[in-house]
């Protein structure tokens, strides 16, 4: 039986030995939408995000059972009154120390955009707090190899945070040294486009204002709800703004998938396109427009990931909401 795939060879049984190859870990927060095989990788850790709705607390940590429970108990994902309770810096520090101090030499931590969430700042401060304890633990175990911890703002959310995370995994599997990763990873982050299609404008406006996002106006909500208008909102570099609107979900999704296909044919910076959905993914998989996009991705060597949205994403975008993300050169955004 072959050993499971790993970013770096497994540790020697003796952690004090300096003969073991360098090992790199990846940390994401739970709002990042990534594939199941990414989450299952032994060198990946997920920062959990507790979500409180009334008297009930759910823990968002890419657990299928927890996600199913949340959807079942909250109208297929609704959580307009919900409150996320991210770990603070001290809790982040303890998490990093326990998970990475002795078995890793380099860690990349990718977070949701700092412009919409306190998670990035807490992770950055937590890593600073952890460094002295990590160095002390390594010294006590006889490990003299340098240790590096990088906290990186993806400047995006949900599917948009998943694109650079999976690109990072590709680089590490290709044995790109950690010191050579920063520039190409930053290029991917800088060019990641995330499109958000909320299904309920009133819900999405309420939740977006909690995050400090003013891209959905009250007048648009009133008119859009009456006419079943679905906006397409572009998120990039920590900001969001509407770029299109269409009548009905089917038209909005179809136009978005066709737009994504055009971008795939034009060339992407990493071979991943992520679609995440706040509901049963079969709603998306059965669409002809998605089948066209899948054929385009296969022809261009791009992996299309159609994923259930994180609990955090569902709570903020609302039931039936969809996000789509890829990394490519900026264009005028026309559909």
Care to describe what's here?
The protein is of the alpha/beta class. Helices cover 40% and strands 22% of the residues. The strands form three sheets. A six-stranded mixed sheet has the order 10-9-8-13-11-12, sandwiched between helices. Strands 2-1-6-7 form a four-stranded parallel sheet, sandwiched between helices. A three-stranded antiparallel sheet has the order 4-3-5, covered by helices on one side.
Notable features of this structure?
single chain; 335 residues; alpha/beta; 6-stranded mixed beta sheet; 4-stranded parallel beta sheet; 40% helix; disordered N terminus
Which helices and strands appear, and what pairs or packs with what?
Layout: E1 24-29, H1 36-40, E2 44-47, E3 49-53, E4 56-60, H2 64-73, E5 83-84, H3 89-100, E6 106-111, H4 119-140, E7 148-153, H5 159-173, H6 182-190, E8 192-197, H7 201-210, H8 218-227, E9 229-236, E10 239-247, H9 249-266, E11 272-277, H10 282-285, H11 288-300, E12 303-308, H12 311-317, E13 322-327
Parallel strand pairs: 1-2, 1-6, 6-7, 11-12
Antiparallel strand pairs: 3-4, 3-5, 8-9, 8-13, 9-10, 11-13
Helix pairs in contact: 3-4, 9-11
* Helix proportion: 40-55%
Coarse shape: globular
The termini sit apart by 49 Å
Low-confidence stretches: 1-17
Query: What is the number of helices?
Result: 12
Rg, alpha carbons = 20 Å
Instruction: Quote the average pLDDT.
Output: 88
The total beta strand count reads: 13
Largest sheet: 6 strands, mixed
Category by helix and strand content = alpha/beta
Per DSSP, what share of the residues sits in E-state strands of 2 or more residues? 15-25%
Strand order of the largest sheet: 10-9-8-13-11-12
| Strand and helix order | EHEEEHEHEHEHHEHHEEHEHHEHE
């Amino acid at each position: 039986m072959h050993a499971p795939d790993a970013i770096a060879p497994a540790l020697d049984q003796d952690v004090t030995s300096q003969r073991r190859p360098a090992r790199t870990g990846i940390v994401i927060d739970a709002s990042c939408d990534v594939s199941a095989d990414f989450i299952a990788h032994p060198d990946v850790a997920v920062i959990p995000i507790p979500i409180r709705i009334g008297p009930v607390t759910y823990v968002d940590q890419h657990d299928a059972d927890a996600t199913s429970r949340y959807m079942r108990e909250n109208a297929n994902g609704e959580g307009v009154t919900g409150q996320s309770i991210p770990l603070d810096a001290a809790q982040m520090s303890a998490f990093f120390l326990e998970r990475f101090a002795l078995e890793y030499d380099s860690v990349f931590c990718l977070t949701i955009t700092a412009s919409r969430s306190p998670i990035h700042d807490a992770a950055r401060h937590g890593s600073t707090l952890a460094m002295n304890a990590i160095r002390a633990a390594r010294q006590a175990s006889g490990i003299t190899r340098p240790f590096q911890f990088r906290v990186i703002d993806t400047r995006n959310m949900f599917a948009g945070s998943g694109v650079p995370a999976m690109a990072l995994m590709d680089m590490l599997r290709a044995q790109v040294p950690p010191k050579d990763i920063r520039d190409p990873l930053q290029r991917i982050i800088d060019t990641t486009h995330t499109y958000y299609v909320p299904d309920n404008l009133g819900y999405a406006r309420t939740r977006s204002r909690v995050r400090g996002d003013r891209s959905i106006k009250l007048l648009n909500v009133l008119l859009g709800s009456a006419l079943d208008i679905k906006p397409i909102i572009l998120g990039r570099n920590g900001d969001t703004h509407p770029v299109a609107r269409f009548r009905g979900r089917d038209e909005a999704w179809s136009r978005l998938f066709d737009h994504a296909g055009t971008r795939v044919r034009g060339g992407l910076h990493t071979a991943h396109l992520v679609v995440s959905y706040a509901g049963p993914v079969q709603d998306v998989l059965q669409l002809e427009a998605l089948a066209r996009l899948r054929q385009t991705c296969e022809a261009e060597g791009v992996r299309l990931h159609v994923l259930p949205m994180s609990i955090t994403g569902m709570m903020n975008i609302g039931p039936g909401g969809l996000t789509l993300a890829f990394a490519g050169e900026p264009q005028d955004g026309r559909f």
